[in-house]
Design brief:
Helix content: 40-55%
GO molecular function: ATP binding; ATP hydrolysis activity; calmodulin binding; metal ion binding; P-type calcium transporter activity
Structural class: alpha/beta
InterPro entries: ATPase_P-typ_cation-transptr_C, ATPase_P-typ_P_site, P-type_ATPase_IIB, P_typ_ATPase, P_typ_ATPase_HD_dom
Shape: elongated
Enzyme class: translocase
Number of helices: 25
Largest sheet: 9 strands, mixed
Protein name: Calcium-transporting ATPase
Number of strands: 17
Membrane topology: Multi-pass membrane protein
Length: 702
């Protein structure tokens, strides 16, 4: 159940066993107490099958934001509708000839109906422009693009929303075996006598000896085998050499248990020496030091005697053995894990290791991986066992959970309990795992990451992302892409809200003052189409940068729109509103044109302002908006397509778009006015604001 195979003593105090348990020693009667979903395994599987139907942190933010924007749009549209209707029926609305459109009973009912329909259409258009219907497209494009690129980085996304959720992660609960380590036991130390042999001498010895196991088996006859016993913690074999009929007893097992049976030992030179108390103490120190380095220490001993008349001993000899040496086995950390852990820490993401291994091994691996510092005070419940965490009261768990960095000897329910507590604390939790026992925690977590090589099918089905190379460094790559997704969505959101705010204000002010909206329904829908669809493609395909990993995680409660975004958004929107209102009220006198050309200038300038503002939206904080521009060819292509489409709209689709042709000077004026958004964007970014403060109060409280 813990994912680690180990021998557990069954007695009167702990009489229960799980199905599938193997008996290695002793005998007894077994009584079935639970079957099916009532077993411990069944309860674990039922927790996997629960459908949580929880919103991701980003989905919750977007829903609140969309609701807020929709309410604002409806309010403005209703106000514009009311103002336009009042102005029309009070005779304050005039046509292009300066005549009143409504003259009471003298006005034809058909003209009244057409005017009212036009007013309603203008109000509906404002609603269409205000509601960010391009946002779902931008989110989907960003997620799909990231999903494709993550596949090349050894991460297969099973659930699209997992891409953005990882960007908000504040804590990663990781397994040890196979994720932080290689899941391959390797010999790292060999002690012959009281000296350790390095890797080079071991390799040379193997090459020089060239041992042929088949030849050895032919020269010896196996007499008796004693299997590993959890009480004695050793296994042995009695063999007889065919050439001289001598009997050889060989033991291997826990170092301290084997050492206690020995009275002599071989030193490094191969000389047989007596194992006195002083020598025994030195070997005990060596064994303790090996255990402190998370090595599984195995000792070897033997005894040789002459075969006495062919009598087979009933038991293997256990006294007066000769100590042969020690072997230290270790499951080493994966290459690059320590660097990956440091990257997570630098990004403000905390790492908690949850394993079924023992406390000493877990602590040593955590130090080696960089999760724990060697000088850190480990007595302050930084490293605990699962049973200890399980026995805490709910209040104690919530109080101490932030101090816990390593949890050893944990069951699947301990891991699940840890995830639930962290989520109640407001964290966005990512969990890695490879075994069936990890499935409940993978399912419960905001984002579950299973291993593609070592992972079971149950673990993969319970996860959101499959790490194809089983490497923790790939988890960091997923974190980078997750933050990139969140950042790209923020870019598009800042851009679209600037468009919406400017369009709403200019139409509202113009409606109050003149009774007409400067941007027609077709023009607003055109702006909505090219700005929503094309801008979504342009801003959703930026690749992750190192700057993203230098910021703290946004977590679960941070607003989607930060103060930095508000600063940029308000500045650009105010500039656009100002320049468009100047054109609305003074455009005819400034350019010496008629009403239709003036309206075309307003429309063209408004669209070109959005084109130039797309460049500003690429970088929310940096002043150099052209940094890395050539790396995103799609962005440049979409900018070009937008300009071409706008040229066609103004010059060739005049009847459809209610526009007039502009000369070179007028086009130059529109481009020059729109280009001023670049220096304005640079200047506004010189104003320092905090990116950490909560800025979108309405979204977080509604």
């Amino acid at each position: 159940m813990t994912g680690e195979s180990d021998h557990i003593e069954i007695n009167e105090r702990t009489p229960f066993m799980f199905s599938g348990t193997k008996v290695t020693d002793g005998f007894g009667f077994m009584l079935v107490t639970s079957v099916g979903m009532n077993t411990a395994w069944g309860q674990m599987m039922s927790s996997i099958n629960r459908d949580l139907n929880e919103e991701t942190p980003l989905q919750a933010r977007l829903n609140k934001l969309s609701s807020y924007i929709g309410k604002v749009g409806l309010s403005v549209a209703a106000l514009v509708l009311l103002v336009l209707l009042i102005r029309y029926f009070t005779g304050n609305t005039k046509d292009d000839m300066g005549k009143r459109e409504f003259n009471g009973s003298q006005t034809d009912s058909g003209d009244i109906m057409n005017s009212v329909v036009g007013i309603v259409a203008a109000a509906v258009t404002i609603i269409v422009v205000a509601i960010p219907e391009g946002l779902p497209l931008a989110v989907t494009l960003t997620l799909a693009y990231s999903m494709k690129r993550m596949m090349a980085d050894h991460a297969m996304v099973r659930k699209l929303s997992a891409c953005e959720t990882m960007g908000s992660a504040t804590i990663i609960c990781t397994d040890k075996t196979g994720t932080l380590t290689l899941n391959e036991m390797k010999v790292t130390e060999v002690w012959l006598g009281k000296e350790v042999n390095d890797d080079t001498s071991l390799d040379m010895a193997v090459l020089d000896l060239g041992m042929n196991m088949e030849e050895v088996k032919q020269n010896y006859e196996t007499i008796r085998v004693e299997a590993f016993n959890s009480v004695k913690k050793r296994s042995g074999v009695l063999v007889k050499r065919k050439s001289d009929k001598t009997l050889h007893t060989h033991w291997k097992g826990a170092a301290e248990m084997i050492l206690a049976l020995c009275s002599t030992f071989y030193d490094t030179a191969g000389m047989l020496k007596a194992l006195d108390e002083e020598e025994r103490l030195q070997f005990e120190i060596i064994i303790k030091n090996m255990a402190a380095k998370s090595l599984r220490c195995i000792a070897f001993a033997h005894k040789e005697r002459v075969d006495e008349g062919g009598l087979v001993p009933q038991n293997l000899e256990e006294n007066g053995l000769t100590f042969l040496g020690l072997v230290g086995l270790k499951d080493p950390c994966r290459p690059g894990v320590k660097v990956a852990v440091e990257s997570c820490k630098a990004a403000g993401v905390h790492i908690k290791m949850i394993t079924g291994d023992n406390v000493h091994t877990a602590r040593a691996i955590a130090i080696e991986c960089g999760i724990l510092h060697p000088d850190e005070n480990l007595d302050n419940e930084v490293v605990i066992e699962g049973v200890q965490f399980r026995n805490y009261s709910p209040e104690e768990r919530m109080e101490k959970i932030h101090r816990i960095h390593v949890m050893a000897r944990s069951s699947p329910f301990d891991k699940l309990l840890m995830v639930q507590c962290l989520k109640r604390k407001g964290h966005v939790v990512a969990v890695t795992g490879d075994g069936t026992n990890d499935a409940p925690a993978l399912k419960e977590a905001d984002i579950g990451l299973s291993m593609g090589i070592q992972g079971t099918e149950v673990a993969k089905e319970s996860s959101d992302i499959v790490i194809l190379d089983d490497n923790f460094t790939s988890v960091v790559t997923v974190l980078r892409w997750g933050r990139c997704v969140y950042n790209n969505i923020q870019k598009f959101l800042q851009f679209q809200l600037t468009v919406n705010a400017a369009a709403l204000v200019i139409n509202f002010v113009a409606a109050l003052s003149s009774g007409k909206v400067p941007l027609t329904a077709v023009q607003l829908l055109w702006v909505n189409l090219i700005m929503d669809t094309l801008a979504a493609f342009a801003l959703a395909t930026d690749k992750p940068t190192n700057d993203l990993m230098a910021k703290p995680p946004v977590g679960r409660s941070e607003p989607l729109i930060t103060l930095i975004m508000w600063r940029n958004l308000i500045a650009q929107a105010l500039y656009q509103v100002f320049i468009l209102l100047v054109l609305q009220f003074k455009g005819r006198s400034i350019f010496g044109v008629d009403e239709k050309v003036k309206s075309t200038l307003i429309f063209n300038t408004f669209v070109l302002c959005q084109v130039f503002n797309e460049f500003n939206s690429r970088k929310l904080e940096k002043k150099n908006i052209f940094l890395g521009l050539l790396n995103n060819k799609l962005f440049l292509a979409i900018i070009g397509i937008t300009i071409v489409l706008q040229l066609v709209m103004v010059e060739f689709l005049r009847r459809f778009a209610s526009t007039e042709r502009l000369d070179w000077g007028q086009w130059g004026a529109c481009i020059g006015i729109a280009a001023l958004s670049w220096p304005i964007g640079w200047l506004i970014k010189c104003i320092p604001v905090s990116g950490k403060q909560l800025a979108y109060h309405s979204a977080s409280t509604s």
